[in-house]
Design goal:
This protein has one domain (8-132). The protein is built from six helices and no strands. The radius of gyration is 16 Å and the shape is globular. It is an all-alpha fold and 141 residues long. It holds the Pfam family DoxX.
């Protein structure tokens, strides 16, 4: 059973945590790893280094959109490939993120959190939210 009085605030909590996580990871790549360092890391994975800026900007702008509830559920859906890519990178390292080069449990958790956000919606205090296409809310709009 879902408590319809409190569920929007639960979705808000999920949205705030997910948005802040994306912003924090973008900041980490900018301030700690640096863009050239992150580009080098991508190169070590066999990915083109020019993907560094698009990934960082996706995390930063996407995190802000999710945090504020500006079509956040759509942004979470759009950022799922970034999270699944991180999951693929960390999968060979083992389960725990404390493993050398980070394990896969944290990226998996974040991907599931983003997917839950897509399903649940933006919740309370969202700037601009919208129903998913094909949903009952979209049919009523």
């Amino acid at each position: 059973m879902i408590d319809t009085r409190l569920a929007p605030y639960g979705a808000l909590g999920l949205r705030v945590a997910l948005g802040l996580m994306f912003i924090a990871h973008a900041y980490l790549k900018l301030a700690v790893f640096t863009v050239p360092g992150f580009a080098g890391f991508l190169g070590q994975l066999g990915l083109p280094g020019f993907l560094a800026w698009p990934i960082i900007l996706a995390e930063l702008v996407g995190g802000l959109a999710i945090l504020t509830g500006f079509y956040g559920r759509y942004v979470s859906l759009a950022l799922l490939p970034v999270l699944l890519g991180a999951l693929a990178v960390h999968a060979p390292n083992g389960w725990l993120f404390t493993a050398p080069n980070g394990g896969w449990e944290y990226p998996a958790f974040l991907a599931l959190t983003a997917f839950a956000h897509v399903l649940i919606g933006d919740g309370a205090l969202a700037l601009r939210s919208g129903p998913l296409p094909g949903s009952r809310q979209a049919a009523l709009a």
